[in-house]
Please model this.
Amino acid sequence: MDSTDILEMVPAISWGSICNDAGVTFRTRSTGVLVAKCIRHLEKSPSMHMWPRSGRFTCHGCGWGGNKLTFLAFIMNMS
Model:
C-alpha cells in the first residue's frame, strides 16, 4: 500500500469512526456539525468542530484545524 492508496481511503472514513478510535467523545448538533473537546489541549467545554461533508475540522480554542488526514496523523503520532 502506498501513500496514494491511503489518500484515496481517507474520505471514506467517517468522523465517527476516527473519533471512536481516538477515544474522542463527540455530539452532533442539529446542523450536522460534530462537536468535541480538542485532543491537543485541556478544556472544560467542547471547542473542536468537525464538518462531515467537507471532512474538515477546527478547534476554536487553540486554532488547530485541517482535514481528516491531519487529524489521523496527529492521533497516530505521525505529525
